[in-house]
Amino acid sequence: MRDIGVDIVAPEGDWDGDKNCPFYGSLRVRGQIIEGTVSMTGMTNSIVVKREVTRYMKKFERYEKRTRRYAAHLPSCIGEVSSGDRVRIMECRPLSKTVNFCVIEREVAE
Fold first, then answer.
1. DSSP 3-state assignment of 109?
2. Which end of the chain is less crowded, N or C, counting CB atoms within 10 A of the terminal residue's CB?
3. What is the extent of the structural domain holding 81?
4. What is the Cα–Cα distance from 50 to 38, expressed in whole angstroms?
């Protein structure tokens, strides 16, 4: 297993030879780290992660909720995720037209 340069818990799943894996393959991760909730798992080896941010609007003296969706590659060593799970994704090179992020950690619910 390779060190990706981020302080995270290492995945315990098996690797199936996926070259787009930051831990066992040759995919390099860089840039921003985003935490969000899995909203869709219908694609092959990819998921959609939703992040909600509250922002204060000075003019109206209220908060607004903004949502951003990211398509992310799911390596086989991370394991199965389902809708509602919290994950951490990190920026990587473009893997397809919409996928520019890779899942690096699945947060365990306590």
1. coil
2. C
3. 29-106
4. 6
Please state the φ and ψ torsions of residue 59, each to the nearest 5 degrees: -60, -45
- Ranges of beta strands (E only) in the chain are 29-40, 46-57, 62-73, 86-92, 101-106
What token pair was written down for 45?
A: 């080896």
**Is the model's pTM score more than 0.85?**
yes
> What's the pLDDT tens digit per position in 13-71?
787 888 888 888 889 999 999 999 999 999 999 999 999 999 999 999 999 999 999 99
Asked if 29 contacts 21 with a C-beta cutoff of 8 angstroms, the reply is no
In tens, the pLDDT along 90-101 reads 999 999 999 999
Please check whether residue 42 lies inside any domain of the structure. yes
Q: How many domains does the chain have?
A: 1
Res 14: pLDDT: 80
Q: What separation, in Å, do the N-terminal and C-terminal C-alpha atoms of the chain show?
A: 27
Q: Which CATH number characterizes residue 102's domain?
A: 2.40.50.1000
